[in-house]
Amino acid sequence: xxxxxxxxxxxxxxxxxxxxxxxxxxxxxxxxxxxxxxxxxxxxxxxxxxxxxxxxxxxxxxxxxxxxxxxxxxxxxxxxxxxxxxxxxxxxxxxxxxxxxxxxxxxxxxxxxxxxxxxxxxxxxxxxxxxxxxxxxxxxxxxxxxxxxxxxxxxxxxxxxxxxxxxxxxxxxxxxxxxxxxxxxxxxxxxxxxxxxxxxxxxxxxxxxxxxxxxxxxxxxxxxxxxxxxxxxxxxxxxxxxxxxxxxxxxxxxxxxxxxxxxxxxxxxxxxxxxxxxxxxxxxxxxxxxxxxxxxxxxxxxxxxxxxxxxxxxxxxxxxxxxxxxxxxxxxxxxxxxxxxxxxxxxxxxxxxxxxxxxxxxxxxxxxxxxxxxxxxxxxxxxxxxxxxxxxxxxxxxxxxxxxxxxxxxxxxxxxxxxxxxxxxxxxxxxxxxxxxxxxxxxxxxxxxxxxxxxxxxxxxxxxxxxxxxxxxxxxxxxxxxxxxxxxxxxxxxxxxxxxxxxxxxxxxxxxxxxxxxxxxxxxxxxxxxxxxxxxxxxxxxxxxxxxxxxx
Length: 552
Fold this sequence. Notes:
3-stranded antiparallel beta sheet, extended
């Protein structure tokens, strides 16, 4: 007969049978029988992963349980923001990592190039080119002045960097897009950046299924409906004690158009996630410990450099009495000094009281193991932040191939971040500006408001930013030339890759310079008509051949 006992493990009930052999062992030796049964229970509750085996010592420390995104993030978010802000202000590695992200991802600002879907719109190349230039011109008019900023301080190119900074430092930032008419600007669209700490539940209400962290969501789909914003920063100590807090509700989307009216920028890593996590969150503790260790090593090196000595005596009390020095050879009491603060001088001879002796200390600093240890920690930090070690500390000492590999690896991360910024911020702002331009008649776009497909065709774009760093520009140019000649890349793509510019926009200036050089006799004239053409070039030629003829 086989019996069974039910063992409750977490939320599960597991039946572990008691066999006939178990009963016999229990009858002969109850202690061994109990140990045998416990071993069988452990085997029953364990799966195929040792990482889930709680009987192993490595898995017994700390608390670990599965939580939904908001339960895992929201309780710790204020503390993580405080720690992140403190590190960015006071820790060189943390501040450098954040600024590196901004420089490489945003740089001088991401720039738009209109790319109409000409097949859908049934436009000729000339019509499409003209409309694209006009659209880009209108977008620059609306965004490249300080009028786009609700605070009237930054153009859109710099607002991109500020928004990205707050996402990295605080985890998220709210971008409100109010309509404010101001003199001198034909566009009413404005951008207002609202810090993360101001987004919270009204009157500090507890989180619910439809209201978490100041974000109101649809009960059925979980889609964002509105944001609740405090009228001032909770850390504003000038008015904090007055308790005059009020909340505003900012709708996320327009009721009729469905266009975004405000959006919370954050890097979403889990379905159902409401708020973002600071970029430095995985390495906060490591950065703080490394900062403390660095401070201790620096202080030890300073102490070692000062060559501190200690004066000891039989009583252990500070030595106070008439000092016998070269300035006071007779120990005159009128010249008595306090020797608790004796300082070493150049070639000085210091007299001591009876029973006193001098002991020196040698901290052994600078510590020769300091740099290798710090580098090992920085490599771990770089892995968590997706920044190669060389780029994290701005120090390239390895070979060209290793340095290039590090930059290529970093650029993969920066490209993903740039795509995120374009999708979440830049493109919605462009669409809002062009929509307003069409609505007010500044741009003509037939079918824009009648068909979503046509509207999408009018709003198609590409965005470019600053070019990646180049270790050897000559090699980079040769590689770009080869890609163009092999027809696996275009001049526009290579121009964006090498300089971050727009090749098509540069063409009028290139033609102008060619004409000017020829006019001044600095370019050779093209061969005469009866001159035999040169031998074909096996390298594939270039599309710029014949430019001189085309520009005459």
